Amino acid sequence: MTGVMNTELSVDGMYLIPPEHHVPDTDRATAAQLLGCDDRTIDALVNGGLTVRDDRFDGRDLFNLGLHSGTGATVPEQAFAFSLRWMRGSANALLSPRTLAFTLTTECACADTVLAVPRPDRYGGTVTPPPAHDVVRASAVTATIRTEGRAVPLRSPALRGLVEEFAGLGVRWVKLPDALREDESLVTSRRVATCESASRYLARRCRDAGYAATTRIGWIVGMLDLVHAWVEVTDDDGETKIVDPVFSLFAARVPGANPLLTDPSVALRTNRLVPTALSVGGRVARHGCDLPVTVRINPVKE
Ligand SMILES: [Zn+2]
Predict the structure, then answer these.
(1) pTM exceeding the 0.90 threshold for the entire prediction
(2) How far is the CA of 109 from the centre of ligand 1 (A)?
(3) CB-count exposure of residue 11 (10 Å: 0-12, 13-18, 19+)
């Protein structure tokens, strides 16, 4: 392989967590480790405008800076490259049915915890036992689920145009404070998005073009605790199809990614997608504290 990565870490053009949301949770040594750089580079980043308070940084700024640095040497880039290896899989690997053991649990003892139920039955799969509700009042949800993928043409030229337009905006997927995660105005004003805001933006563009469209939230098999969001849109042939703006962005950065993931004329629903019945704005877990909620989705031997 030729072509040595020579990009230097820089704050230029980077979105920084706004001061009112800044959380100085990461010390300098950890920052250098996350970014794969030395102390002098940290100084240069601070001089360049990286937000620092009492010599501490916001871990989300460090994550976003590292992920989009292009150095290949940062922890976020390496973690992403590892967790997205599956994007190089064959069409069969992306689409063939899978049986999975699903568990969603809270780590707290909050009363009145409400959890979302996985609903792959919405997408041609099954849930055992069959869910009676979309959400349940419980501290754990367990189920055996079967997912299956589908790749179909996105027929509407208008919809294909909107998918291409989004891909061409130069949007960066970033970690944002909860208060900004669903803020679709940041997509155009700052060219940053989460999967929630990107999906909200694209669904609205589809509706503005006259197509029935909604956002959907759920999980991705194999990406730890990743609550994901995507778009469901009704195509010219009357079929509701999946468009996933953020996964197309990710796939565009994975060398050798299956072209189905980035082709604007293909509506791809991978077998890794586990929907809920909720849209962006809904929560896969509602409870009274900040303790994490863990989702485990593991293959079941058949
Ligand atoms: Zn709680």
Answers:
(1) yes
(2) 6
(3) middle
